Amino acid sequence: MSPVRRCSRTACGRPAVATLTYVYADSTAVLGPLATYAEPHCYDLCAEHSERLTAPRGWEVVRLLDGSAPARPSGDDLEALANAVREAARPQERAAGAGGGGSRGADPMEVARRGHLRVLRSPDN
Question: How far apart are CA 20 and CA 30, in angstroms?
C-alpha cells in the first residue's frame, strides 16, 4: 500500500491534500484539511479538485482553513501595509513642517523621538 493517499476522484492519481465529508441532515459539504486517516464515508481530494469543488443545488459548501498552511495575502494585508508605510512617513513630515522641536509640544508625554519611535514619559512623573 502506498504511504501517500491519492485523490478519490476517478482517474485522478494526484496526492490528496483535503478531505470532503457530507452532513446530510444540514445539506452541507465540509471540505477541510486532510484527515489523519482514511474514513469509509470521507473523500480525499487533490488540490485541483478541492479548489473546483461545487455542491448540489440547495447545498452549502463549508471550507475549513488548514492552520498549518500559509495564509494567502488579501487586499486587507496590502492596505494595512500601505497604512503602516504612510504612518511611518508622517512624523518626519510633521518635524520638518514644525521646525524640528515643535512636534514635542504636541504630545506632553513624549520625551524624545528617533525616526518613527518615541520615548514617552512615565505616567507617574
Answer: 6
Separation of CA 45 from chain center = 22
Q: What single letter denotes the amino acid at residue 70? A: P
- Grid coordinates 504612510 are at which residue? 86
Specify the DSSP class assigned to residue 64.
P
Single-letter residue type at 79:
E
**Sign of the dihedral through C-alpha 90, 96, 97, 103:** positive
The 10s digit of each residue's pLDDT in 51-91 is 999 988 999 999 987 655 555 666 777 788 888 887 877 75
Q: Percentages helix, strand, coil for the chain, rounded to the nearest 5?
A: 30, 25, 45
